[in-house]
Specification:
The complex is a heterodimer. By secondary structure, chain A is mostly beta strands. Chain A is built from no helices and eleven strands. In chain A, the strands form two sheets. In chain A, strands 2, 4, 5, 6, 9, 10 and 11 form a seven-stranded mixed sheet that branches. A four-stranded antiparallel sheet of chain A has the order 1-3-8-7, with no helix packed on it. Chain A starts with a strand and ends with a strand. In chain B, strands 2, 4, 5, 9, 10 and 11 form a six-stranded mixed sheet that branches. In chain B, 0% of the residues lie in helices and 56% in strands. Classes of the chains: A mainly beta, B mainly beta. Chains A and B meet through strand 4, strand 5, strand 9 and strand 10 of A and strand 4, strand 5, strand 9 and strand 10 of B.
Chain lengths: 116, 110
C-alpha cells in the first residue's frame, strides 16, 4: 500500500535560521508531489509541485525552495527563515492515471513550524 | 485561477443530526475532492467526485459539474465528524494541483 512520511512533526526555529523539511513516499512510482502550507485560519495554499526528479514548479514567490533529488523524495528548504514562514506544512502525492485524472491525492501528517 | 467557495463557514450540530455542506466553483473542473481535516491536522481524502454521486457509510457527495457545485452530506453525525471539511478542485492541465476552498468548520456536540 502507498504511504507518505513527513518529518519532523513540529519545529521551532529562530528567525534567520535554515530550514529543511523532508517528505518520502512508499509504494508508488513516479508520483506527482506537492508542498502546501496552511497558515493560521484554514486555507491551504500550494507552494510547489513536482512531476519528476529535478522538476520543480513554484506557485508562489517566497522565501522557500523545493528539491526532488529522488523519485519519491521531496524536500522543502529555506536559507533564512522569516516570521511569516510560520505555518502548517503538508506534503502530498498523486499519480496520473489518464490525462486529467489523478488517483489518490494523499497528504502527509504535516509539520507545524513556528518561527520565533 | 479557479475560485472555490464553501458554505457555511461554520456549522454546529447536535449528535445525530444531518447536514449539507456546499462547494461552488467558478470554472469547469475534472478533479474535485472532499477532505476532512481532524483536530490534529491530518487531512483525509473522503471522495474523488468530479461528477455524479458517491456514498461511503454516513457520508455521501454529489457533484453537478454543469452547474459547478458539489454537496457533501453528513447523516447521523457523530462527535468524530468534527473538524474542517475542504472542497478542492483542479482542471485537466493542472498536473493534479488542487485549489482549496476555505473550508467548513464542523463541531458536533454530544
Amino acid at each position: 500500500s502507498q504511504t507518505i512520511h513527513q518529518w519532523p512533526a513540529t519545529l521551532v526555529q529562530p528567525v534567520g535560521s535554515p530550514l529543511s523539511l523532508e517528505c518520502t513516499v512508499e509504494g508508488t512510482s513516479n508520483p506527482n508531489l506537492y508542498w502546501y502550507r496552511q497558515a493560521a485560519g484554514r486555507g491551504l495554499q500550494l507552494l510547489f509541485y513536482s512531476v519528476g526528479i529535478g522538476q520543480i514548479s513554484s506557485e508562489v514567490p517566497q522565501n522557500l525552495s523545493a528539491s526532488r533529488p529522488q523519485d519519491r523524495q521531496f524536500i522543502l528548504s529555506s536559507k533564512k527563515l522569516l516570521l511569516s514562514d510560520s505555518g502548517f506544512y503538508l506534503c502530498a502525492w498523486s499519480v496520473l492515471v489518464t490525462q486529467g485524472f489523478f488517483y489518490g491525492y494523499t497528504f502527509g501528517s504535516g509539520t507545524r513550524l513556528t518561527v520565533v | 485561477g479557479i475560485q472555490v467557495e464553501q458554505s457555511p463557514p461554520d456549522l454546529i450540530l447536535q449528535e445525530g443530526a444531518n447536514s449539507t455542506l456546499r462547494c461552488n466553483f467558478s470554472d469547469s473542473v475534472n478533479n474535485l475532492q472532499w477532505f476532512h481535516q481532524n483536530p490534529w491536522g491530518q487531512l483525509i481524502n473522503l471522495f474523488y467526485i468530479p461528477s455524479g454521486t458517491k456514498q461511503n457509510g454516513r457520508l455521501s457527495a454529489t457533484t453537478v459539474a454543469t452547474e459547478r457545485y458539489s454537496l457533501l452530506y453528513i447523516s447521523s453525525s457523530q462527535t468524530t465528524d468534527s473538524g474542517v471539511y475542504f472542497c478542492a478542485v483542479g482542471s485537466t492541465d493542472s498536473w493534479g494541483k488542487l485549489q482549496f476552498g476555505a473550508g467548513t468548520q464542523v463541531v458536533v456536540t454530544p
